[in-house]
Amino acid sequence: VKEYLNIPYLGTVPAMAMDKEGETRLDMVTMHSPKSIASEAYRGIRTGILFSSAETEPQVILVSSSGPIEGKTITTTNLAITMAQSGSKVIILDCDLRRPRIHKVFDIPRDQGITNLLVGNKNIKEVVFRTQIPNLNVIPCGPISPNPSEILGSTRMTDLLEILKRNYTRIII
Fold this sequence. Notes:
The chain is α/β, with parallel strands linked by helices and 173 residues long. It has 10 helices and 5 strands.
């Protein structure tokens, strides 16, 4: 990663097998199993992110991958939990407008969220949900949009990020 892409290497997470309780335990392994190897890996990645820039700690963090079922939700939730546990005020924006799962992880409704906010039929107070983890809020995806690229690339998204930057230490997309 360092050599070919000229970007910092942040760390690896060990492969995790699902237990009898299913995906939700993996999605929140840093909360359910804080002393596990996986939890330590996510804390290491958190530290790597916070020290990845010499001048300032990144405030907006995008978790992405080239395809489905590669660990975006697991990475996002566990990274957010570790940052919230360390005292940062964190918000997750579920911008996966094809296969959203953040609402399931945190057991919140999906019917109002980022898409409502970006098309202008909800205000920010109506779509921000508190989680059971102190310092961690979520904006779920909302109704699936027929044009996800356009809605996420809009000026309203830029404006939303500017508003969130004033209220949160970390924004994880």
